[in-house]
Design brief:
The chain is of the alpha/beta class and 836 residues long. 35% of the residues lie in helices and 14% in strands. The protein folds into 6 domains: 138 residues; 158 residues, P-loop containing nucleotide triphosphate hydrolases (Rossmann fold); 95 residues, Helical domain of apoptotic protease-activating factors (Helicase, Ruva Protein, domain 3), CATH 1.10.8; 91 residues, Orthogonal Bundle (Arc Repressor Mutant, subunit A); 169 residues; 164 residues, Leucine-rich repeat, LRR (right-handed beta-alpha superhelix). It has 25 helices and 27 strands. Strand 26, helix 25 and strand 27 form a beta-alpha-beta unit. This is Disease resistance protein (CC-NBS-LRR class) family protein.
Length: 836
């Protein structure tokens, strides 16, 4: 075994072990964190101990203290090496080795703080501080990756990239230089700055130099420095601190980066707006090879190196257009080259305009191509140089042409709904499905909604990302799917909502900063100027002390300083209420109980800590409320919502609502049809009260790692058709009464790594069509009752891995059984939730 003190002795090969252990047996997450922390701490301490030895040799000091420290480290290394040999077959040994690793860490901590008596030698005192700092960080976090952060953090998947090779190579050249520097990538809106920055992060040369120490943060128009720093801590898998102020946040970030800074670091600050130079300045630290890449519409020349991203030249622009219009040698249609050239020229080299307009013309008849050409030529703003002076306005005109090609009015309306959510945030597709089902009478399972999403993707108006690929995608389960769109396309959606020609305005979007209110929002003790109200937004009528709002959709965004001091309004016509919040304390607006037509409530917290939401009882008077989705909030005690059909909880605390309420859950939601609980890690068991809601058809409890059991009386759910329990890592057994669910057609227990057995009479599920059991590594046998599946007249599909398939091989005489084994992808990002 290589000598520990030679430097780098610990760590080689162990990263692969950890990845394999985490992937193969996800139950070992805690063990993996402890092991990883041990590896990195040993790696960090090895050169320091060598330095201590060198100092001792030079000063002819006794070696007893250093030797004792070496002994502790070697003991620790031996435990780590044995952990190296663990595989999934040794799963039961994980807790024992985790305990050993923790005890050895504690020994070293005690020795460092009590026994090591370093005398008044300056170098040795500095060395002691380093050792203590490493140990303190390890003790506090349990999982600090000190060498490299092992991953590309914050940037979405590698983007499609065409026509920008020259600026890409220039940026690579600058970043490969030694030393610290700030680079500014500037260009017009829609010129591809963010795309280029994301592509850069995936370039082999850049990844080779910076390894995992690549951080990608979107800054946006109203940056919050503390939240940006919190994001960086989150990327490093460290507990997110509560900073006193911006100065405290920067000081703590400096400590973090100096640890990482022994290796090259690349920090990408994307979408920095004019006037934010001071924010960029705060992220500058004196580190040996620390690069900051800023993307912005302005040059920020004070930072030195500037890379100007010019509009695409004609040939690259044509290539980009061909790609997104799907014009290639295999195309069944090919428009006239001159027609293509004219449209491309009209786009003035804007990658975003080329992409969106190409998407809108893809596989369309030539008449639409001609019409698009005429539309673009008719825009006088595009015929002048004003494009380069007022880029946002001009580009909106480009993109408007593509939006006008949407023939389905629902598609246009659905696109405009994208403006209801904050800039640079992922929009859950399940939210869109809930809204559209009620607003546009689309089907509740999402089929028609996904058809609209797919068409908007084809037209390059939006992008769809899946945070985790799972088998149940074919079952219309979209909890892992999100929509993203370019800032300018979001602006287009908002702009289009404001210029709607209908008598009744459909969307009212309000963005509140602190306690500032728009002039037109008349408070209960305020007098408004009626003319200003009418000029601000059409379709509103002003009473003396209330603002009457006729919009069908009301979206209100607030920041972390908002005090929940709501002004009054009368939103009589609102059917959807979208609340986007960031504060730790938040109350529902007092006017909520006046929203008699409200059908959908969506509350999303974009802050770092769960928000305490109050005044939930205001919902009790809303007889039309059918769907509620709450994200990253502490769910308050439930009130009576007799017509609620769907409740969705994502990353919420549920204890108050499920355990502390005086009202029975079945009394609060007697007509609930669908329950979705995702990433709610305080959920230990599903309360028995849910089993009295006999209207339930779908229950999805996913990624709730502390869930250990299901109610024994679940058999009461006589109408239950879908039961999803995937990725509930502590679930050890299922209630035997599950086998009595006569209408159950889909059962998903994927990645329930602690599940030891299935219900004995599971073969009695005569309506079962789909059984998903991939990743059930602790399941060693199937109950003999599965032979009853052979009596089914319909096919039953089982999705599993090789181990699961081997269990089914013992029952070869089930004629309608189909076994599918999907390709396994190593991706642990889902363990940390869905938002970066």
């Amino acid at each position: 075994m290589a000598d520990l003190l030679s430097g780098g002795a610990v760590g080689a090969g162990m990263g692969e072990l950890l990845k394999y252990a985490l992937h193969t047996i996800q139950k070992g997450r805690e063990f993996g964190s402890t092991l990883e922390a041990s590896i990195e701490t040993l790696d960090a301490l090895a050169p320091l101990i060598k330095e201590m030895n060198d100092v001792n040799d030079l000063s002819d000091r006794p070696k007893e203290e250093i030797e004792r420290l070496e002994t502790l480290l070697r003991e620790w290394e031996q435990i780590v090496t044995k952990s190296n040999k663990l595989t999934w077959k040794n799963f039961l040994s994980f807790p024992r080795y985790q305990s050993k690793l923790q005890k050895q860490r504690q020994k070293l901590e005690r020795y460092s703080s009590v026994n090591v008596q370093l005398e008044n030698k300056t170098d040795l005192m500095k060395l002691r501080d380093k050792v203590d700092e490493i140990l303190k960080r390890m003790v506090n976090s349990g999982q600090f990756d000190g060498k490299q952060i092992r991953g590309l953090f914050g940037a979405p998947e590698e983007p499609e990239f065409i026509g920008m090779d020259e600026p890409l190579n220039k940026l690579k050249f600058e970043l490969m230089k030694k030393g610290a520097s700030v680079l500014v990538l500037t260009g017009l809106g829609g010129s591809g700055k963010s795309t280029l920055a994301k592509k850069l992060c995936w370039e082999p040369q850049i990844k080779g130099k910076f390894g995992g120490n690549i951080f990608f943060v979107t800054v946006s128009e109203t940056p919050n420095l503390k939240n940006i720093v919190k994001t960086l801590f989150e990327y490093c898998k460290l507990p997110v601190p509560d900073f006193i102020n911006d100065e405290d946040a920067i000081n703590r970030l400096g400590i973090l980066l100096r640890q990482v800074g022994r290796y090259p670091i690349l920090l990408v600050l994307d979408d920095v707006w004019p006037g934010s130079e001071g924010l960029v300045e705060k992220f500058k630290f004196k580190l040996p090879d620390y690069k900051i890449l800023v993307t912005s519409k302005v040059a920020f020349k004070r930072f030195g190196t500037v890379c100007q991203l010019d509009p695409l030249l004609h040939d690259p622009a044509v290539s980009l257009f061909h790609h997104f219009a799907q014009l290639n040698h295999r195309s069944s249609y090919m428009p006239d080259k001159n027609l293509v050239d004219e449209i491309v020229k009209a786009c003035k080299g804007s990658p975003l305009a080329l992409q969106v307009i190409a998407g809108s013309l893809c596989k369309q008849p030539f008449e639409k191509w001609e019409k698009m050409k005429e539309r673009l030529k008719s825009q006088s703003i595009l015929e002048s140089n004003s494009y380069f002076h007022d880029n946002s306005t001009a580009l909106l005109c480009y993109l408007q042409q593509s939006l006008d090609t949407l023939e389905d009015i629902n598609e246009k309306e659905c696109f405009m709904d994208m403006g209801l959510f904050p800039e640079d945030q992922r929009i859950p597709i399940t939210v869109l499905i809930d809204m559209w089902a009620e607003l546009h009478d689309l089907d509740e399972d999402g089929t028609n909604a996904m058809a609209i999403v797919d068409d908007l993707v084809t037209r390059n108006l939006i992008n769809v990302i899946a945070t985790r690929k799972i088998a149940t995608e074919t079952d219309k389960y979209y909890n892992n799917h999100y929509v993203m769109l370019h800032d300018l396309l979001r602006e287009l959606a908002i702009h289009q909502s404001k210029v709607e020609s209908s008598v009744q305005i459909k969307r009212l979007i309000i963005d509140l900063k602190g306690d500032n209110r728009p002039d037109w929002w008349i408070g209960p003790n305020q007098q408004g100027i009626i003319s200003r109200v009418y000029s601000f937004i059409r379709g509103m009528l002003v009473k003396q002390k209330q603002l009457k709002v006729d919009a069908r959709i009301l979206s209100i965004s607030t920041d972390e300083t908002f005090s929940s001091d709501w002004c009054d309004m009368q939103p009589d016509e609102a059917e959807v209420l979208v609340l986007n919040l960031q504060s730790d304390q938040y109350s529902l607006p007092d006017f909520t109980d006046k929203m008699s037509k409200l059908k959908v409530l969506i509350v999303t917290n974009y802050g770092f800590h769960r928000s305490e939401v109050t005044k939930f009882e205001l919902l009790g008077s809303l007889s039309n409320l059918k769907r509620i989705r709450l994200e990253k909030v502490s769910v308050p005690c439930l009130c009576r919502m007799k017509n609620l059909r769907k409740l969705s909880l994502h990353m919420c605390n549920t204890r108050d609502s499920f355990e502390s309420c005086s009202i029975q859950i079945s009394d609060a939601m007697p007509n609930l049809v669908e329950l979705s609980i995702d990433y709610c890690n305080d959920l230990i068991k599903l309360p028995d009260g849910f089993c009295n809601i006999t209207t339930l058809k779908k229950i999805s409890i996913t990624n709730c790692h502390k869930l250990s059991a299901m109610p024994q009386d679940i058999v009461k759910l006589e109408n239950l058709e879908v039961l999803r329990l995937c990725s509930c890592s502590d679930l050890k057994e299922m209630s035997e009464s599950v086998a009595g669910l006569g209408k159950l057609s889909c059962l998903d227990i994927s990645d329930c790594v602690s599940l030891r057995k299935l219900p004995n009479d599971i073969g009695g599920l005569q309506k079962l069509e789909k059984l998903y059991m991939k990743g059930c590594s602790n399941l060693i046998e199937l109950p003999s009752s599965v032979i009853k599946f052979g009596n089914l007249k319909h096919k039953i599909s089982v999705l599993c891995d090789e181990e699961g398939a081997a269990l089914w091989e013992q029952y070869p005489n089930i004629p309608n059984l189909k076994i599918d084994m999907p390709k396994v992808e190593i991706n642990l990002n889902w363990l940390h939730g869905t938002r970066s």
